[in-house]
């Protein structure tokens, strides 16, 4: 089953928003072993949308369209799909009543334009909307099919998992079970990881093992290694995953910090909880980014006590007790880590200081970052990083690298 993705919206072509929806859809397709060889973006123009859809259907078995299902004049995806099918649109009264009920429950007056969302091409079926007002569509075109989903990512994601992916798999007639596992790591470059995993790629290819291996560099989220296995049963697929997961771990070892949706900050939090430790952070170059990511972890209040954004040198001295002449040094971040641990009365102190750019500071080049760790064991330490990129990338890489340094230190005991 070959699936194509079409994202609708003039704002995509103008660069006003980034098309994250196509990425989301392609990831979901890959997770269940469906091929996606082409993706397209098209503006809010009826004839061009129909042209793109016909072109996609000429080479693919299914097309997933996202966007253009709203209630405004430029939301014309339904009309375009009806045109490709060669049928008119018809009002579905049950959808209309559902939309009216949604507005009534929110105490809002519904515009008549919203009833456009209850129009469905004759012969197509609607996908019930549970997070918004615009239903999706399943529109057969001969032996092929067009799916339409809202452009709002929150709504699209739910509709993909609940209706579109299951329908695709049913049409494919493949009763095999597919299991995926994402291994998340940090500390290796993408090229270094590729080199280490190359023998495993060769093994999978030569033995035609029922598994695929891929990896993706994801910035502050680390590098993701995805394993997907296909077998007659879920249990059999899981066994294949476990066997090759062990092979991956042999290669990248302690660079692995988590699995699937686990973030670095969540992984650090789990380690702190296991050891009944609390954390405080002192941030200069990261400017609060570390604390912000930590508090996004559910339950972080059980192990995170707080932080200090000591951006100004005087704040480092008065609040954290830094006495080092140069505040961008190993000694300075050690003093910051000790100071914040003491001030906030936590078990662990983690500190960051460096140069985010755009210009260097004294003898320190842009991307020079020091991370300090104090576990209250009388042996605080610091590590120097040389990070690439612009100001924002340096902040992000400082954050995940510093948390990874703390993770490794905790694991050593």
From TrEMBL:
One of its GO terms (molecular function) is hydrolase activity. Pfam families: CinA, CinA_KH, MoCF_biosynth. Keywords: Hydrolase. It comes from the Bacteria. Residues 4-171 form the MoaB/Mog domain. InterPro entries: CinA (IPR050101), CinA-like_C (IPR036653), CinA_C (IPR008136), CinA_KH (IPR041424), Competence-induced_CinA (IPR008135), MoaB/Mog-like_dom_sf (IPR036425), MoaB/Mog_dom (IPR001453). SMART domains: MoCF_biosynth (SM00852). Belongs to the CinA family. HAMAP family: CinA_B. This is CinA-like protein. The gene is pncC.
């Amino acid at each position: 089953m070959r699936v194509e993705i079409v994202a609708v919206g003039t704002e995509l072509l103008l660069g006003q928003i980034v098309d994250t929806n196509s990425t989301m859809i392609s990831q979901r397709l890959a997770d269940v072993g469906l091929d996606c060889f082409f993706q397209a973006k098209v503006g809010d123009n009826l004839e061009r949308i129909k042209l793109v859809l016909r072109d996609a259907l000429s080479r693919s078995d299914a097309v997933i369209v996202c966007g253009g299902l709203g209630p405004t004049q430029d939301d014309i995806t339904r009309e375009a799909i009806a045109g490709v099918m060669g049928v008119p649109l018809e009002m579905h009264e049950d959808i209309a009543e559902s939309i009216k009920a949604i507005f009534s429950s929110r105490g809002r007056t519904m515009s008549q334009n919203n009833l456009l969302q209850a129009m469905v091409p004759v012969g197509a079926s609607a996908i019930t909307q549970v997070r918004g007002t615009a239903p999706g569509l399943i529109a057969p075109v001969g032996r092929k099919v067009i799916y339409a989903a809202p452009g709002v990512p929150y709504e699209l994601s739910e509709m993909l998992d609940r209706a579109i992916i299951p329908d695709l798999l049913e049409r494919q007639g493949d009763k095999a079970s597919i299991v995926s596992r994402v291994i998340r790591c940090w500390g290796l470059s993408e090229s270094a990881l590729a080199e280490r995993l190359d023998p495993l790629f060769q093994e999978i290819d030569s033995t035609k093992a029922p598994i695929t291996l891929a990896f993706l560099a994801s910035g502050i989220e680390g590098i993701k290694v995805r394993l997907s296995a296909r077998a007659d049963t879920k249990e059999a697929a899981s066994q294949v995953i476990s066997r090759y997961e062990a092979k991956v771990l042999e290669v990248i070892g302690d660079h692995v910090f988590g699995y699937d949706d686990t973030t670095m900050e969540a992984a650090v939090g789990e380690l702190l909880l296991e050891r009944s430790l609390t954390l405080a952070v002192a941030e200069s170059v990261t400017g609060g980014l570390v604390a912000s990511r930590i508090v996004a972890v559910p339950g972080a209040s059980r192990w995170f006590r707080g932080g200090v954004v000591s951006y100004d040198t005087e704040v480092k001295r008065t609040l954290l007790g830094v006495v080092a002449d140069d505040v961008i040094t190993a000694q300075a971040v050690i003093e910051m880590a000790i100071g914040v641990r003491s001030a906030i009365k936590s078990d662990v102190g983690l500190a960051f200081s460096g140069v985010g750019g755009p210009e260097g500071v004294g003898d320190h080049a842009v991307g020079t970052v020091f991370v300090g760790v104090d576990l209250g064991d009388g042996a605080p330490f610091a590590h120097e990083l040389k990070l690439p990129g612009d100001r924002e990338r340096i902040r992000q890489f400082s954050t995940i690298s510093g948390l990874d340094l703390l993770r490794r230190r905790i694991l050593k005991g």
